[in-house]
Specification:
Elements: E1 2-8, H1 13-30, E2 39-42, H2 50-64, E3 74-77, H3 83-97, H4 120-135, E4 144-148, H5 152-163, E5 167-173, E6 176-179, H6 186-196, E7 206-208, E8 220-223, E9 242-244, H7 253-262, E10 265-267, H8 269-272, H9 275-289, H10 295-320, H11 324-342
Parallel strand pairs: 1-2, 1-3, 4-5, 4-8, 8-9, 9-10
Antiparallel strand pairs: 5-6, 6-7
């Protein structure tokens, strides 16, 4: 199994189960050899010191060390966790089982992490967006983007989209939202955001109401923050032609219906944000082989997987005459069902 561990105040068993199921379909769509898993601790990591986080992580690992394993269940970082968290898990797990770098992914590079893993989800979002726009005879350049969320995924996506000629007109994070119709200077914003722990107060753009970020005028909207942000309250107001779901489950089912009636094309999360788990797979493969790749190989392989993934989803859409979300789920469920039947597990 594969899935992230999140440290967040709202973690509960229902959310963890839902996200684990989502991972089952996501790994199937990405065509990597895992089932889905998820874990978490209900806490506010921002309120905890580094040593408190370390103790929390190590005790958690002591409780789950016989549930995870290189060929059983391989965790990764999620909201509120990072490579350092993975390093603590690896170290604690290794006390029980001997040094096993492949037991977690998203590790620091010095401990067997993969080059390119940090940017992987954001880079996957770039490749997914390119694949979708190409379908409509467009490319990244000259499109106007709005990105909600400027954490790992949002900031990398912003950086890579800008490098490919896209214009980012609005960005938001927990501190606030900013807008500049001529395009935000992303390298400057990254520097500002690092120094000030958020986008608020950035001089190269105007402050706007964070609630309005999703309805700003743009061609491509990228929700890269929390789930459930696009709902029946704001779906009618959305001006984007394309929505790329970099977050998990950002669009609720009611909004889905409203948007598809409006002709908005939604690239679903289980495909759009699968770059992270795909490079996690590459990291696991490298650890098992004991042979590390250079960054170029990681990025090339990721592009191959994302491009093939889009093609597979599109085939499903054509076969079943359905939208991209239904196509992606059908592809995922189909692959799981075929494996189930082949192993003789069917009821």
């Amino acid at each position: 199994m594969k899935g992230g561990i999140r440290y967040h105040p709202e973690v509960d068993p229902d959310e963890v189960n839902a996200l684990a199921q989502l991972m089952t379909w996501k790994t199937a769509v990405a065509n990597i050899p895992y089932g889905g898993a998820k874990g978490g601790i209900g806490c506010d990591p921002g309120e905890l010191s580094i040593s408190e986080l370390e103790r929390l992580t190590r005790v958690f690992t002591q409780k789950i060390h016989d549930l995870v394993g290189v060929h059983t269940d391989v965790p990764a970082p999620d909201m509120g966790t990072n490579p350092q968290t993975m390093a603590w898990i690896l170290d604690e797990y290794s006390k029980f089982h001997g040094y096993s770098p492949a037991v977690v992914t998203g590790k620091p590079v010095d401990l067997g992490g993969s080059l390119g893993r940090d940017a992987a989800t954001g880079r996957g979002v770039l490749f997914a967006t390119q694949a979708l726009l190409k379908e409509y005879g467009k490319s990244i350049s000259n499109q106007r983007f709005v990105i909600q969320g400027f954490g790992n995924v949002g900031s990398w996506a912003a950086q890579l989209i800008r490098e490919n000629g896209g214009k980012i007109v609005a960005v938001s994070d927990v501190t606030g939202a900013i807008k500049n119709s001529n395009g935000i200077d992303i390298p400057r914003l990254l520097k500002h955001s690092k120094e000030n722990r958020g986008v608020k107060g950035f001089s190269g753009a105007d402050l706007i109401d964070p609630k309005s970020i999703l309805v700003e005028d743009c061609d491509v909207l990228i929700p890269a923050a929390l789930g459930g942000v696009i709902n029946r309250e704001n779906a009618n107001e959305i001006k984007a032609k394309f929505i790329i779901e970099a977050a998990n489950h950002p669009t609720d089912p009611e909004a889905d219906e409203i948007l598809s009636k409006k002709g908005v094309i939604i690239l679903p999360d289980i495909y759009a944000n699968s770059g992270g788990v795909t490079v996690s797979y590459f990291e696991w493969v490298q650890n098992i082989q004991g042979f590390m790749w250079d960054e170029e190989k990681v990025n090339d392989e990721l592009k191959t997987y994302m491009t093939k993934g889009f093609k597979d989803v599109k085939e499903m859409c054509k076969t079943h005459n359905c939208d991209l979300r239904m196509g992606a789920f059908t592809l995922g469920v189909n692959r799981v069902a075929r494996a189930t039947v082949l192993r003789g597990w069917e009821a």
